[in-house]
Amino acid sequence: MRATVHVKRRSDIADPAGTAVLRGVRDLGYSNVESVRIDKIITLEVGATDPARARADIEAMCEKLLANPVMEDYEIVLEEDGDTA
To answer: Which of 4, 12, 15, 70 lies closest to 39, judged by CA?
Structure first.
């Protein structure tokens, strides 16, 4: 089973890395870029047969390590045998 975790900084939290990239692309002449947000995608290969248990374990991982619950939101996408669960 494969799990993809999309971690995004909350919209009301400043994104210094995004601000630096925005400044850089504008310095390169791309003045039509209005904003940049830097997010993370984490892919996990999980040896689990129960999707509900896998999701619960991954949610716990997100709360404890993969995301900062104070500043970030996350979405978990599970794929089982090529299907999205």
So the answer is: 15
